[in-house]
Hints:
By secondary structure, this protein is α+β, with helices and mostly antiparallel strands. The protein has 2 domains: 7-67; 79-158, Glutaredoxin. It is 47% helix and 13% strand. It has helices at 7-21, 28-39, 46-54, 58-67, 87-91, 94-105, 147-158; strands spanning 79-84, 111-112, 118-123, 135-137, 140-142. A 5-stranded mixed sheet has the order 2-3-1-4-5, with helices on one face. A hairpin with a 5-residue loop joins strand 2 (111-112) and strand 3. The longest helix is centred in the N-terminal third of the chain and has 15 residues, at 7-21. The site of FE2/S2 (inorganic) cluster (FES) has 11 residues, from helix 5. Pfam families: 2Fe-2S_thioredx. It comes from Mesorhizobium helmanticense. InterPro entries: NADP_DH_HndA-like (IPR028431), NuoE-like (IPR002023), NuoE_N (IPR041921), Thioredoxin-like_sf (IPR036249).
Amino acid sequence: MTMQLASTEIASRTAAIVQEMKGLEGPLLPILHGIQEEFGHVPQEALPVIADGLNLSRAEVYGVVTFYHDFRARPAGRHVLKLCQAEACQSMGSDAVAAKFKQLLGIGFHETTRDGSVTLEPVYCLGLCACSPSAMLDGEVIGRLDDEKIEEIAAEVRS
Ligand code: FES
């Protein structure tokens, strides 16, 4: 999905999604998910359209976007690396894994490298607890992260 979409294009596609889902019970979250699926993130330009469609203030919509870390306010990098931070992975050293990735990539969680190559995000259980600590790279799960795998992944996403 291109990042250079015109505001009017974003507004009209957002309006279509709002129209389609506003009848749902608790429509805001499904609408935001739909928008993130459409654009890869929730663009600023979409917020007033959602607010108008649901009779909410922009601040309310913005508050929800920033509260749920699933939603990105900016486009993601070419790769998305999610590191599991839930209990089983915690007990197998996911903190150290995260620290190592942050150091190798020079970014923290919810950040994208300046060259746009990778976005780092936490995730809470990938269903791969038996192989913890685990991660997901561009939708593929990876288990038993050790120093070697971490370095390989970091090199791959930066190349
Ligand atoms: S806790 Fe990490 S995969 Fe389940």
